[in-house]
Amino acid sequence: MKIELPWPDSALLPNNSSGHHWATKQSAKQQAISDATWATKKALFDDIGPRIDPEFDAELSIYFYPPDNRGRDVDGMLSSMKPALDAIAKTIGINDRRFRPVHLYPLDKIDGGRVIVVLDQIPF
């Protein structure tokens, strides 16, 4: 299953939250949840392959296409995806602890940025 998402709001980066009230990133978090929920529903509708079985692990690959050439650390990019990954898990009905292994791929910039999440079932 392939899920295409917009580039995460910079408010979701853990390095940007130091000293800020939690509510300052609430709007970005809600938008990420909404975007991921709808993108996952679209992927479920469009996908002709087998569904993800919540009883088995699902291999998670995340492809990061940033909107510019700024240096970004991979752990920060993954952290900014937490609301989206939670929404994906909830939408397909799997506990996110079943996302294993997790592969992260920081790639070249594209206009506007994008994140592509690919889930593959591991049937054992």
Pick out its properties.
23% strand, 124 residues, 60s Ribosomal Protein L30, Chain: A, four-stranded mixed beta sheet, alpha+beta
Polypeptide structure, described:
The chain is of the alpha+beta class. It has a single domain, classed as 60s Ribosomal Protein L30, Chain: A (2-Layer Sandwich). It contains three helices and four strands. The protein has a four-stranded mixed sheet with strand order 1-4-2-3. The longest helix is centred in the N-terminal third of the chain and has 21 residues. The mean pLDDT is 91.
Topology of this structure?
Elements: E1 2-6, H1 26-46, E2 58-65, H2 74-80, H3 82-92, E3 99-106, E4 114-121
Q: Give the CATH level 1 class.
A: Alpha Beta
Radius of gyration: 14 Å
**Helical amount:** 25-40%
The 3D shape can be described as globular
The end-to-end distance, rounded to whole angstroms, is 18 Å
How many helices? The count is 3
CATH H-level homologous superfamily name: Holliday junction resolvase RusA
CATH architecture: 2-Layer Sandwich
Portion of residues in beta strands equals 15-25%
Main sheet: strand order: 1-4-2-3
The chain-level mean pLDDT equals 91
Record field, number of beta strands: 4
Largest beta-sheet characterization = 4 strands, mixed
- The domain tally reads 1
**Would you tell me which CATH topology applies?**
60s Ribosomal Protein L30, Chain: A
Task: Quickly describe the structure.
This protein has helices spanning 26-46, 74-80, 82-92; strands spanning 2-6, 58-65, 99-106, 114-121.
